[in-house]
Amino acid sequence: MQADLSKKDEQFREFSLNGPMWRVVLYVGFPLALYESLNQLFKILDTMMASHIGASAVSAVAYLSQINMMISAVGTGLAVGASIKVSQAYGAGDFMLVKKRVSTMFAMCGALGIAILLVLVPFTPEFLRLMNTPEEFIADGSTYFRLELFGMVITFFNNVYIAIERARGNSKRILILNTAVIVVKLGLTAWFVYGLGGGINMISCATIISQSLLLLAACINMNQKGNAFGFSLRAISIKKEVICPMLTLSFPVIVERIAFAVGKVIVNSMSTVYGSWTVGALGISNNIGGITTNPQNGFQEGGSSIISQNLGAGRPKRALLAFRWVLYIDMLIGLVIMTASLLCLNQLAGLFAGDNAEFAGMIKQIYRFEAVGAIPLGVNAAVMALLYGFGKTRVTLVMNFCGSFCSACRYFGRCSSSRISETSAPALSWR
Fold this sequence. Notes:
Elements: H1 7-18, H2 21-50, H3 55-92, H4 95-120, H5 124-130, H6 135-167, H7 171-195, H8 200-222, H9 240-271, H10 276-312, H11 316-343, H12 345-353, H13 357-372, H14 374-389, H15 393-417
């Protein structure tokens, strides 16, 4: 069984370990930042289209999406652990270990996906009741939830594939493939909703189809005989030196993201005391804020791979240099986009509030609080890149728990400072 590098992978490894660091960070991080920005924009458009189905159906989607997030956190966490350890082995030049970790992680995703489907699909209503889901949402959303589970399993594989591509520096491929997936998803959603008059089940079908196309591309790309980043049944290993390092790094991330999803459900339910306008304006503000934070997260993901590679190659000083460049770039992104969004805030609020000047004013008032955090969030993204790159996922778990608590306090501060009378509250529905 061979485990060699392609010419392109050899060139990137040399570039990552010896090239000008600012160029390395931009080369890896910029396509990821662009993809994250486009993804946030398309999420907003997808939400707008979904709102035409009906308030009750979309409310069911919004509620069930939080449960989906908790389950999908397992697959996302595994992908993070895989990315870190694959990057380290790649930087260290242990290409056989790279192949074993790549193949084993795909096998683990397959086992996880089968287990989820076998347990949850036959007992979806019972599981939703266990999660304290309102009966009307169970009636409207059971089939939707089952379809989402199938889409989620496909996404498990895709997340691992994206993590591996990120580890080998193929950020442009990630950008191209995922942008194509997003466009297909939006196109199908628009056709199903506007053209066919479909319900929420059709939105799930659009997700499954688009994610399946990405999985197909992944299968074609991973079928590389002899290549260290290709999948091989023979390379699957259950030895602790292969599995344990990835699981050790993944577990804190899984806990962190499950806790985040649970916390979001709790906070959303508590925020209703301030009224529907406040909840709606806060959701819009978060969407606008994502335009800033998502590109910062792109450089975070790219930076963590670069740091892991250089650390694996025994170059900790160069890993710290990568951190500094990620820090500079993320702070600059925060400053530029924060300034631009505040200057264009009237236009942005008008897109969501329409002719309702009072509601637009509330959006603007809340977003000003959101905008203040753009630069600190850039610093946080760079620190996360450093800690992930060094494999300190337990530290990130503690930091993010503390950050979530502070965010919740800030959240309710924004809500309480922005309360207005709701004599004619608009019908709002958010995913």
